[in-house]
Amino acid sequence: MRNERPLRILHCFRSPVGGIFRHVRDLAEAHARAGHKVGILCDSTTGGAHEDALFDAVRPFLELGIIRVPIHRTVGPSDLGVLWRCYKEIRGLQPDVLHGHGAKGGALARIVGSALRVEKYRVARLYSPHGGSLHYDRKSLAGGIVFRLERLQEGLTEALVFVCDYERQTYFAKIGQPAGRSELIYNGVGDADFAPVETNPDAVDFAYIGMMRDLKGPDLFIDAFAETERAVGRPLSAVMIGDGPQRRQYEAMAARMGLSDRISLLPAMRTREAFALARTVVIPSRAESMPYLFLEALAAEKPVIATRVGGIPEVLGADSRALVEPDNAQALAATMAATIEDTGWAVRTMPDRERVRASFSASVMANRVMELYRELTHEPRAGEARLRLRWISGRIDLKS
Length: 400
Prior knowledge:
- This protein is α/β, with parallel strands linked by helices.
- The protein contains 16 helices and 13 strands.
- It folds into 2 domains: 8-188 and 362-389, 3-Layer(aba) Sandwich (Rossmann fold), CATH 3.40.50; 192-358, Rossmann fold.
- The chain has helices at 19-33, 49-58, 78-93, 102-118, 141-153, 165-174, 218-232, 247-256, 271-275, 292-299, 312-316, 329-341, 345-349, 353-359, 362-377, 382-393, and strands spanning 8-13, 37-43, 65-69, 97-101, 124-128, 159-162, 181-184, 204-209, 238-241, 263-266, 278-283, 304-307, 323-324.
- It is globular.
- It starts with 7 loop residues before the first strand and ends in a 7-residue tail after the last helix.
């Protein structure tokens, strides 16, 4: 019989932007509504007004609070001070579960959790890569170092949690078969997301939504947009929505190509508000794991064009005409042109929304994650503990 007391759960991650933050917010809300005590630890230097509003929305579900400390993207001497500060903060919260997300969050959760276990404090240490360090090239010097560090940390981990099979297979190929437990639990979106979003009457043709950095492909979007105009023989319209370190670079790129009057750039906003601004969503990423934006767009019945990266083909199907090869603006433009010239493209290409809901809902995700937390934090009953001690001491009594 399991101990069904409420669990104390702390999620650790670096950047409160994008899919990881969405993943953590969904888990936190679902588990808080189920009676558990949840908290967040993340970077204090990332995010803006949009992220502040998201924190405000999830704050009522975070009984363990929000801890924000400066956490740099790269590894450096400052990480030692961050570890010590996080250790003091986490120790005071007495969590049952430390769930690290992304490379930095995973290291924090597992190193601090291991320090607590040295003090005989029972805490489950979990790690979800969410792509993160898996984007490195195995043959590069940086990749070799990162993958060795990931391998070393397996000994500090009760379970690895992968959000798609692509992520799991990439981990196996680059780092190796995990020495301990691993689980595949797909990302999922909430019931409210499975409602169609009406397109505004003045909507543009295409939208890029997400981080403004090369990994996500905003430059490919701009190049493909220009090529699409040439293919269809008339001016089109687009919007790029998001924040990030290279935003000005893409704004300058659009201006240099003479597209400023047809591609507008807007700051990050709520996803469903962004969906209403365009007829088709384009996800031109060079690398992904299982992007929430993609799942949200399908749930909202928005036509989506995406690169064949990460777990996206696991949802659309490997042969979907909505998929294009990554880092190929010409291929992306050809599919964008098809959505303009073929009015039935979306009906024939997009998956059924209810099929998406059956496998990629937040309730399914949260329930499976909680089942794992329970298994990893289960303390044996007194009789079970005595039986284990007898087994260890060689005095097992099968009649007891």
